[in-house]
Design brief:
- By secondary structure, this protein is mainly alpha-helical.
- It has one domain.
- It has five helices and five strands; from the N terminus they run βααβββαβαα.
- It has a three-stranded mixed beta sheet with strand order 1-2-5. The protein has a two-stranded antiparallel ribbon with strand order 3-4.
- β3 and β4 form a beta hairpin.
- α3 crosses α4 and α4 crosses α5.
- The two termini are 27 Å apart.
- The N terminus is likely disordered.
- The structure holds iron/sulfur cluster (SF4).
- Iron/sulfur cluster binds next to loops.
């Protein structure tokens, strides 16, 4: 896994960036997690974000993003997810960005990112999914996506 700088929970990107703001691992996980295991407000926000991403470019951010904003695990600007937490989440963010060839601050097109993501999904599953609280919810769709890779 790539190294990740020490976490300063106060460190987050400018909230005024145009378009939906996503942290690295959400560029991949948003394809599979639609709010299961979270609150209804979180689920609605996920769907709203996906909807926006079909119409406008998103921006890669460091730290909490537009999805985290409605998550009960976001406390004082840091993820306090009991199995992951901000340190681990930032490692996953860095891994996802490395695989996708993106950097914080980059604009991204959700359709293009989705296409790239399907090609690296098996690698992502092997490196990142084990032990994630959403693993069981995501597994069937990830399995299907891996099995029916588009032919080059
Ligand atoms: S669990 Fe953590 S990384 Fe995931 S949406 Fe919530 S605050 Fe963000």
């Amino acid at each position: 896994m790539p190294s990740v700088p020490a976490v300063d929970p106060a460190e987050s990107d400018d909230m005024s960036t145009p378009g939906p703001r996503l942290r690295g691992h959400h560029l991949i996980c948003l394809q599979f997690v639609h709010g299961g295991g979270h609150t209804a407000e979180f689920a609605r926000n996920v769907l709203r974000t996906i909807d926006r991403l079909t119409e406008e470019e998103g921006t890669v951010v460091t730290g909490p993003d537009d999805l985290c904003e409605k998550c009960l695990w976001l406390v004082d600007g840091a993820c306090v997810n009991e199995t992951e937490g901000e340190d681990i989440v930032r490692i996953l963010d860095a891994l996802a960005l490395q695989l996708l060839g993106l950097n914080p601050g980059d604009a991204f097109d959700y359709g293009t990112t989705s296409a790239s993501m399907t090609r690296l999904l098996e690698q992502w599953r092997d490196l990142a999914c084990a032990g994630c609280p959403s693993e069981d919810a995501c597994a069937p769709l990830i399995e299907l996506t891996c099995r029916f890779q588009p032919h080059e």
